[in-house]
Amino acid sequence: MKRSPGMRTYAMAERASHLDFDIRDQSVRQQLTQPHRHEYFQVLVTLRGEATHLIGGSVRKVRAGTVTFVLPYRSHVCVMPPGAEYVVISFSLRFLRPDSTLDPLGLEYANANASALPEIAPFLAQEVVDFMVGESDMPWLHATLDAMLRENRERRAFSAMMLRAFLLELIGGVCRRNDRVLAEALDARRALSNRQDWLVRVTRLMQERLGGDLALKDAADAANLSPGHLAHALKRETGRTFTELLTERRMERARELLMSSSLRLTEIAHATGFTDESYFARRFRQHFGVSPGAFRRQGEQETTGKAQFCPIDSQQPSIS
């Protein structure tokens, strides 16, 4: 797919009802009809209808039983016809693998080792593999999706753990059912030894220096590129400027610290590169739609089962 400098890149807050994991069917949100990217992982499960999915540089056909895996920042579009039934699952890398230190931006370019991070294997192979669930296994697929939809509606204590388990079952089950073609695609991918790793070096530097100053020139030096070349390459590959990408990573780090530590807001601001707490709070609200303090309180309530983030329509039906 031809990359466009004006292609939209979506954050989870713009296309999902929760900031960590979300699942919805075709009735919940209007589908996008133009090529776009998103910062998070996405899985599209087609249950009825046929369409063409343009993903990266590939054109894939989808029909009932097709499961499509979309990497973060991968350009794609799939316009489903009227009457089609499908489910869209969105989630962050931190939700999938809380222990991962990888940056989603560099997954495509890191030639990631699927044996070390097997959950992303189908995402790496999507442009050359059509992942299918056969007719005899459709009851399993419907049951797994229904379990996720139900748990996502309820959002109580331990829901994140349950949703992660269902998600892993879905990914693992689809990979098992397509193991031969997936293995062949990953072998071919590993054979490509000339892929540039400039983006990996840039994202690694960002992660290392989230709490301090980082200029475009510093990142360009790490990538062995000129500042102008790097700025153009980042915009082409991600739809984001260097400053926007750095701010996104600082916001994600702040989100993690709010959820997992007892640090004061001033300390979190300094740990994520902001010297002014008020400015940090404004940027956090712009990014997530809620203040840092309110976000922490909501997270504490969700952990105890007393509340939930941005609840979706409780009347959303199951898909079986």
From TrEMBL:
GO terms for molecular function: DNA-binding transcription factor activity; sequence-specific DNA binding. SMART domains: HTH_ARAC. Keywords: Activator, DNA-binding, Transcription, Transcription regulation. Residues 200-298 form the HTH araC/xylS-type domain. This is AraC family transcriptional regulator. It comes from Caballeronia hypogeia. The lineage of its organism: Bacteria, Pseudomonadati, Pseudomonadota, Betaproteobacteria, Burkholderiales.
